[in-house]
TrEMBL record:
<keyword id="KW-0444">Lipid biosynthesis</keyword>
<keyword id="KW-0443">Lipid metabolism</keyword>
<dbReference type="GO" id="GO:0001666">
    <property type="term" value="P:response to hypoxia"/>
</dbReference>
<dbReference type="InterPro" id="IPR009721">
    <property type="entry name" value="O-acyltransferase_WSD1_C"/>
</dbReference>
<dbReference type="GO" id="GO:0004144">
    <property type="term" value="F:diacylglycerol O-acyltransferase activity"/>
</dbReference>
<dbReference type="Pfam" id="PF03007">
    <property type="entry name" value="WS_DGAT_cat"/>
</dbReference>
<dbReference type="InterPro" id="IPR045034">
    <property type="entry name" value="O-acyltransferase_WSD1-like"/>
</dbReference>
<protein>
    <recommendedName>
        <fullName>Diacylglycerol O-acyltransferase</fullName>
        <ecNumber>2.3.1.20</ecNumber>
    </recommendedName>
</protein>
<dbReference type="GO" id="GO:0071731">
    <property type="term" value="P:response to nitric oxide"/>
</dbReference>
<dbReference type="InterPro" id="IPR004255">
    <property type="entry name" value="O-acyltransferase_WSD1_N"/>
</dbReference>
<dbReference type="GO" id="GO:0006071">
    <property type="term" value="P:glycerol metabolic process"/>
</dbReference>
<comment type="similarity">
    <text>Belongs to the long-chain O-acyltransferase family.</text>
</comment>
<dbReference type="InterPro" id="IPR014292">
    <property type="entry name" value="Acyl_transf_WS/DGAT"/>
</dbReference>
<keyword id="KW-0808">Transferase</keyword>
<dbReference type="Pfam" id="PF06974">
    <property type="entry name" value="WS_DGAT_C"/>
</dbReference>
<keyword id="KW-0012">Acyltransferase</keyword>
<feature type="domain" description="O-acyltransferase WSD1-like N-terminal">
    <location>
        <begin position="6"/>
        <end position="259"/>
    </location>
</feature>
Length: 459
């Protein structure tokens, strides 16, 4: 793969990270026991994981600074790539393997990925009594958004690896001077003027929406969703039956995502009450990322995101009323489109010069707190059954990065008849994250009372 400049949003994510505030996303995948054949040893799962990961061209790329554009960076192949630096195995010894895996995953997600190497890690978590195992994947947000992460991580699955075509040898690129000629300078100036106009348009939309909602530009004080970063992480997971989510959708209208967002709102309300805290004066605002990739097209490199802002109706006592409020708000968001409102702040990053990302990152790091209180995202997975080394994928819990100054992020992935939900929190601010995971199940039961007691359960 030839050298490739980081897109503006990728560059922003690269410079926003700090030691206390890592900016990678991830997934915790649980697999059943690998098949065994009489007279043969089970497959070496770690060796297979390393071999599959090394075969993904994107995972061999690292970030390096470039001379032009000034302040920019590029992806280039790591000449000393060694997959053993990225793939590790850890054996767990607790009786409750899923709980131990989540606890260890939280510790591993606290650590930033090495910046001098391709920015990713994978951990094989073994030791379950029945021979099942888990794989934790960490990808720096500069490398991928949710959809791109799925495309990259899917390379480890049997079904994807079997159909992978050999990577094409890149065409040689003729050497080019880092100093642009007059014609190129004119084109750059023209592009910068166009970028400036788009930046002003998007920026005005972002600021206008923020002022209209908050009335002032200072950090939103919603607690316990706001906290100075401690560098610690806690992870909790839950699985909800997808057929029950769709049953609610068919009864009430809207989309399955509307139902899930309403469940998050209700779970937050229940969580506040369980902590003995008063409900917030203003409903917490969620950023709901929206992919700008066209459906049916391959996921290109880097991030391609905008977002909607949604006031989660935590102060609404009626579960049906919460769902109605979410559906109406999301309908308004979709009518306006992802290029308007404060949720379009990701588009603003596309219009800024690389130097603005490099030197403006310390100032922009806390901007998320001005615009929203938590991230709630859905990460689509392939609908077909997946396996690794013959071991069936049982569940995959996506994990979103925390914005600076925020203490909770929620990510959801439908797979295998379940909606698998990964909750990531600042470990110091939210020590009771398991209670929020349990609240999601309780909220589902309010909107769709189980006829046979078959509720979803935290994992």
């Amino acid at each position: 793969m030839s050298s490739e400049l980081l897109a503006p949003l990728d560059l922003a994510f690269w410079h926003l990270e700090s030691t206390e505030h890592p900016l990678h996303l991830g997934a915790l995948a649980h697999f059943g026991p690998p098949p065994t054949t009489a007279g043969q040893e089970p497959a070496d799962v770690r060796e297979l994981l390393a071999r599959r990961a090394a075969a993904v061209p994107r995972l061999r790329m690292r970030v390096r600074d470039v001379l032009f554009p000034v302040g920019g960076a590029a992806w280039s192949a790591d000449p000393d790539f060694d997959v053993s630096r990225h793939v590790h195995e850890i054996t767990l010894h607790g009786a409750d393997f899923p709980a131990e895996a989540a606890r260890l995953a939280a510790e591993l997600m606290e650590r930033p990925v090495a910046r001098g190497l391709p920015p990713w890690e994978m951990y094989l978590l073994s030791g379950a009594p029945d021979g099942s195992f888990a794989v934790l994947v960490k990808l720096h947000h500069a490398l991928a958004d949710g959809m791109r992460a799925v495309a990259i991580g899917a390379g480890i699955f049997d079904e994807i690896a079997a159909g992978r075509r050999p990577a094409r040898r890149p065409h040689p690129v003729p050497p080019r001077s880092w100093i642009p000629g007059p014609g190129r300078l004119l084109g750059i100036a023209r592009d910068r003027l166009g970028d400036l106009g788009r930046a002003v348009e998007v920026g005005a939309s972002v600021v206008g929406s923020s002022v209209a909602r908050a009335g002032r530009l200072d950090p939103r004080p919603t607690t316990p969703l706001a906290a100075d970063p401690s560098g610690t992480r806690r992870i909790a997971t839950a699985s909800l039956p997808l057929d029950r989510v769709h049953r609610i959708r068919r009864t009430t209208g809207g989309t399955a995502n509307d139902v899930l967002l309403a469940l998050v709102a209700g779970a937050l309300r229940r969580w506040f009450e369980g902590r003995g805290l008063p409900l917030p004066d203003a409903d917490p605002r969620a950023l709901v990322p929206v992919s700008r990739r066209r459906p049916g097209t391959p996921a290109g490199p880097g991030n391609s995101l905008s977002g909607y802002l949604l006031d989660l109706p935590v102060t609404e006592a009626d579960p049906a009323g919460r769902l109605t409020a979410v559906r109406s708000a999301m309908d308004r968001n979709k009518a306006a489109g992802p290029h308007r409102g404060a949720g379009a702040v990701a588009l603003l990053a596309d219009q800024l010069h690389p130097l603005a990302h490099r030197f403006g990152a310390p100032l922009a790091a806390g901007a998320a707190r001005l615009l929203f209180d938590l991230l709630v995202t859905q990460v689509p997975l392939p609908r077909s059954a997946l396996s690794f080394g013959g071991a069936p994928l049982r569940a995959l819990f996506p994990m979103a990065p925390l914005a600076r100054g925020q203490s909770l992020a929620v990510a959801m992935s439908p797979y295998g008849g379940q909606v698998h939900i990964g909750l990531v929190a600042d470990g110091r601010a939210v020590p009771d994250l398991d209670a929020l995971a349990a609240a999601l199940t309780a909220e589902l039961d309010l909107l769709d009372p189980p006829e046979d007691g078959g509720a979803g359960t935290p994992v």
